[in-house]
Design goal:
Distance between the termini: 34 Å
Number of helices: 14
CATH topology of the largest domain: Aminopeptidase
Structural class: alpha/beta
Shape: globular
Radius of gyration: 23 Å
């Protein structure tokens, strides 16, 4: 996924500033390691590091070699690959023969074309899917948040029915960051993944999100490309029989037609759904859709190394970064390999460099785990599998840091916390940032929900605080203008394209400075005895309180 601030080739930067002096006790971060690992993993020989490909075999073997050389021990004793791997079972499903979605029972029957008007797929591993004459219910934002006194499903039974859901959460149009759902900053309740999860818990046969570009933060083209073609999911016992038969998205204009056919005003009901106490509205319509699935079972790997702790070895601090990328992709000027140099060969290089520095500094009281996960690009599946099948219990995992794209444009005066306002790790990091003479800046686009789009989130869902942040755009050479130009250059010209390639001219000084912060935070956690918690308003607080009553404050 990778956020879009400081991960670009900055041709606008005129000079390379010297590296900042690390805090006392911080070992050097090897720039040579950052260069070597990034260049190797993003070379054409690794074919874009697509999970289950020949590129994966090369990638995971190379990471084991680097972890061994750094001085780590195998992180999964008794597991595959002499204990360096955790197998991640995957199932690939491709929806085919997708019928139009038909809406009946209203003033005007509707036929919604696949791809143009609606996209559908299923988490269920089944050769065929059919939703027939399913009653349609509008459930507002589809949120059930008892800690906030909010339940869009209260008083309505949606078992076997099709629910229509608004994207984002009720506060998304707020100009502030305060409110029941934290204002314009998206909560997890606003993410499409949550909406499908909750609809399945409620027994819905189908869950369809109404697409609206502004609250979604991306256009219909992204919805089309992400929800059609082969889809990877974890291959688990039961074949996801507890999920809805069909999930998907609907174009806003067609949703308005659907509501009009039911004699309802879409805009009026959408406004009502923003108010606490909203009641779901049966629309008096039925929905039908069907498709077949081509199913392919396969497996990928997480790569895990550990530096065992001295006195509290069964308490764990994590560093994570995903090794995977897109593999072969749509060619640009004859180049059809998406190399993923920034996303995320650079973050994986940072993981190796942090392992080297940590081993050189010596073991800490607690154990430190260095994990490079698979399938971030296909839905955070590697980190999700680890979190749901942990080698080290979530209840004894202290916290950690995730890296998804390093700063290769030079040192920045600022540092941005992604998903700010969630955990006490932010207070610890603020002190480290200040010690570097930098300032913490607010996330520029909290409404995009970036905190929920990289691997740390799968730990967070199970109560473990994980930190995610990176350099801001205020460069020490070139200022805000240079930093913003670099960000736009990456988004427009390189992100998820073959042009995301290694460049020998990159300036690694900003990456080193950020890695010093990550090292400092992880080291403090690993040498400590406290259990940092989520803030009281965070979605994940209850699990941490359950596992660690001593963390309650």
């Amino acid at each position: 996924m990778t956020t879009f601030r400081m991960i670009a080739l900055a041709t606008v930067v005129a000079a390379t500033p010297a590296l900042a002096e690390p805090a006392p006790g911080t070992p050097p971060i090897s720039v040579q390691t950052l260069k070597d690992v990034t260049q190797t993993l993003s070379s054409d020989a690794y074919e874009g590091r697509k999970p289950t490909s020949a590129g994966e075999e090369k990638t995971t073997a190379y990471l084991v070699k680097r972890f061994k050389a750094a001085g780590l021990k195998p992180g999964n004793p008794g597991g595959p690959g002499d204990g360096w791997f955790q197998d991640v079972p995957l199932v690939e499903m491709t929806a085919e023969n997708v019928s139009p979605m038909t809406i009946a029972g209203g003033k005007t029957p509707l036929t919604l074309a696949f791809r143009d008007d609606v996209v559908v797929k299923s988490y269920k591993v089944a050769p065929s899917i059919a939703v027939k004459d399913s009653p349609v219910v509008f459930v507002g934002y589809g949120i059930n948040a008892p800690e906030r006194g909010w339940n869009d499903y209260a008083g309505v039974d949606v078992k076997g029915k099709t629910v229509l859901i608004l994207v984002n959460d009720p506060d998304w149009q707020s100009s502030a960051r305060t409110g029941l759902f934290e204002g314009k900053a998206m909560t997890y309740y606003g993410r499409w993944t949550y909406k499908y999860e909750e609809a399945a818990r409620q027994g819905a046969a189908a869950a369809i999100i109404v697409h609206d570009t502004e609250p979604a933060a991306y256009g219909w083209g992204v919805v089309q490309s992400s929800n059609t073609g082969p889809q990877l999911e974890l291959d688990e016992k039961g074949d996801h029989a507890d999920q809805s038969d069909a999930i998907g998205w609907m174009q806003l204009a067609r949703a308005k037609e659907l509501f009009a056919s039911a004699g309802q005003d879409f805009d009026a009901l959408s406004a009502a759904a923003k108010v606490k106490g909203f009641k779901a509205v049966p629309l008096g319509l039925t929905a039908s859709v069907s498709f077949t699935n081509t199913i392919k079972r396969q497996a990928s790997k997480n790569v895990i190394g550990i530096l065992p702790g001295k006195t509290r070895p069964k308490e764990y601090v994590f560093y994570t970064a995903h090794w995977d990328h897109l593999g072969h992709c749509t060619p640009v000027k004859g180049d059809g390999i998406c190399n993923g140099a920034l996303d995320n060969a650079s973050g994986t290089a940072g993981l190796v460099a942090l392992a080297e520095a940590s081993v050189k500094a010596g073991p800490t009281r607690r154990s430190q785990v260095f994990m490079s996960v698979t399938c971030e690009e296909c839905g955070l599946l590697g980190s999700r599998f680890y979190a749901e099948h942990p080698i080290y219990p979530m209840a004894t995992t202290v916290g950690g840091v995730n890296m998804d794209g390093l700063n290769t444009v030079g040192r920045a005066r600022d540092f941005v916390v992604t998903g700010a306002g969630k955990s006490e790790l932010e207070d610890m990091m603020a002190k480290l940032v200040a010690a570097q003479g930098r300032v913490v800046k607010p996330e520029p686009n909290p409404e995009r929900g970036s905190y929920f789009r990289s691997d740390h989130f799968m730990f967070a869902k199970l109560g473990v605080p994980m930190f995610y942040g990176e350099s801001g755009e205020n460069l020490r050479v070139g200022g805000e203008a240079a930093g913003h130009a670099a960000t736009l250059d990456y988004i427009e010209n390189r992100y998820h394209k073959p042009q995301d390639e290694y460049n020998a001219a990159w300036d690694w000084s900003g990456a080193v400075e950020d890695l010093q912060l990550y090292y400092g935070l992880g080291r403090a956690l690993a040498e400590g005895s406290d259990w940092p918690n989520w803030y009281k308003t965070a979605e994940f607080r209850a699990i941490r309180d359950r596992d660690h009553p001593e963390a309650r404050k």
